[in-house]
């Protein structure tokens, strides 16, 4: 059973930075996607970024491209989301998610589709405000 635990959320000023961490464990297959989603109040959960363990490819939503960077520390089995140039509209609960690269899962499209992911962390709040 895959387990995910996020940390690193908090309060940042517009233009500031935060780094989120997601400690992952319990994988039984070698190839999987690790993704970050976010959900603002009264809004649908949206995909932010995705990482493939098979080839290291990364994917970003247009709204964060150039500002956010996803990366992984293999030794710690932890995926990070470095968030720079934060904007008030980045305020949301951020979730880490994981799914094996099998079946109908398709990198690029499934990365932004919450129902495509079967394992989720508990979420961490990010607030961008002056």
Write a concise synopsis of the structure shown.
Helices cover 0% and strands 48% of the residues. By secondary structure, the chain is an all-beta fold.
Describe this structure in words.
By secondary structure, this protein is an all-beta fold. The protein has strands at 3-7, 10-12, 18-25, 32-39, 46-52, 58-60, 68-73, 78-83, 92-100, 119-120, 124-128. The strands form 2 sheets. Strands 2, 4, 5, 6, 9, 10 and 11 form a 7-stranded mixed beta sheet that branches. A 4-stranded antiparallel beta sheet has the order 1-3-8-7, with no helix packed on it. The N and C termini lie far apart (40 Å). The relative contact order is 0.31. The model has no long low-confidence stretch (mean pLDDT 94).
List the helices and strands and how they pair.
Blueprint: E1 3-7, E2 10-12, E3 18-25, E4 32-39, E5 46-52, E6 58-60, E7 68-73, E8 78-83, E9 92-100, E10 119-120, E11 124-128
């Amino acid at each position: 059973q895959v387990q995910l635990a996020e940390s690193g959320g908090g309060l940042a000023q517009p233009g500031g930075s935060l780094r989120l961490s997601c400690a992952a464990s319990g994988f039984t297959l070698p190839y999987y996607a690790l993704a970050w989603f976010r959900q603002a109040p009264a809004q649908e959960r949206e995909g932010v970024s995705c990482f493939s363990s098979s080839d290291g490819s990364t994917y970003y939503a247009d709204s964060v491209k150039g500002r956010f960077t996803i990366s992984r520390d293999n030794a710690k089995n932890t995926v990070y989301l470095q968030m720079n140039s934060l904007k008030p509209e980045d305020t949301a609960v951020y979730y880490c998610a994981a799914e094996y690269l099998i079946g109908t899962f398709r990198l690029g499209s499934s990365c932004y589709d919450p129902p495509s992911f079967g394992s989720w962390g508990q979420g961490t709040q990010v607030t961008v405000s002056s």
